[in-house]
Amino acid sequence: MNRRNSAAEDRRVIAATTIGTAIEWYDFFLYAAVAGLVFNQVMFGQLDAGAATIVSFLSVGLSFLFRPLGAVLAGHFSDRLGRRIILMVTLIAMGGATTAIGLLPTYDSIGLAAPLLLVFFRIIQGISAGGEWGSAVLLAVEHAPVEKRGLFGAGPQAGAPAGLLLSSGMLALMNVIAPGDAFIEWGWRVPFLLSIVLMFVGWWIRRGVEESPVFEEMTGMAHSPLRTLLRDHWRKVLIAALVFAGNGTVGYMVAGGYIQSYASTQLGMSRGTVLWAVTGAAVAWLVSTVFAGALSDRIGRRKTYLGGFVFQFLAAAALFPLVDMRETGWLWAAMLLLGVALGLTYGQQAAMYAELFPTPVRGSGTSLTYAIGAILGGAFAPTIAAALVQSTGSTYSVTVYLCVATTIGFLAALSLRDRTGVPLTAN
């Protein structure tokens, strides 16, 4: 392949992994945001307000328990069959489940079947999310020149804030089109139904991408990648999972919908104001994610992580004190500060994970490590935050919780060797 064709293929890979991952995260984050704004009323409204909010956020966290299943399946088959085919399967599964949620009747219409079906579709989302990430980042990183792995890997990483930006923006728009009770009655459904259109867009973009060259040249493939991974690399899996947990615990205050629910319900701030501030946070997260990926190519993954966690600690400490001021300007300041911090502990993750594991188990290693980190970090962070506020009457305990999680992420990153630039076909 000549240089021009290689550059063109690089652009296709970055577009396919970034846009496709953004669509998947749009679906995933959309549920989390609506859980605290709508589902606690229309799906779990038979409970009192506090309990309904906690149970609604539990349904968000429940899907994380099924991410390892998706990670194991996708990791195994991506190591056996390739990265590309897994990305097509996860995209269709996620889009189908999200569209189905948009059509789901409420508790008042079909009773207990409504929350049960809602949880079922959320589980499908969790399995899909568990399988999507590892295959997407490996396709990007394994196509990348060695000196640009962080930047290429930041593409699918940027899909997460892009998905948050798209989902928050759509909800903010629908809050204008269908204000007040109309949003609760039907407005929230439109962004879910849009998923079927986005699913076909993602499928069209991904169908022309070539398989990872590292996978095609792979020799000595493990007969059972998961067994080999857990036998030979379990320490790296656990430590790298804690690195992501340090990011995810803080990130899911926004991505998991807790700030949206807390600021609009308990502080009485305008729902539209909160959604637009979260949209701003997504933009900041997106930009700093790409910056962190590129920076890690210059100074290494480990140094980028350590500096990022220091910044995240400050942002986590300031988050609720600023939000609790109930002023739009301070809410925006808190959201933008948090968005920048999240990107600085997220953009380099794809390249770091890919460089941690040898080629025959790389798909299983990245997928499973990410899924475990999501459970340890983001899975029940909104539920824990809601329970802490309800039991203490203050957000101070949540601030301590976020700062402790950030410190754990810092120590985990500190304990890992920096493998920036290691050959992907020989490690």
UniProtKB/TrEMBL annotation:
Instruction: Indicate the transmembrane segments per the record.
Output: 12-39, 51-73, 85-104, 162-180, 186-205, 237-259, 274-293, 305-323, 329-347, 368-389, 395-416
InterPro entries registered for this protein in UniProt = MFS, MFS_dom, MFS_trans_sf, Sugar_transporter_CS
Q: Where is the protein found, in the record's own terms?
A: Cell membrane
Question: How would you describe this protein's topology in the membrane?
Answer: Multi-pass membrane protein
- Its principal location? membrane
Gene Ontology annotations for the cellular component aspect, listed alphabetically: plasma membrane
PROSITE patterns listed in its UniProt record: MFS, SUGAR_TRANSPORT_1, SUGAR_TRANSPORT_2
Keywords of this entry: Cell membrane, Membrane, Transmembrane, Transmembrane helix, Transport
Q: What is this protein called?
A: Inner membrane metabolite transport protein YhjE
Origin species: Corynebacterium comes
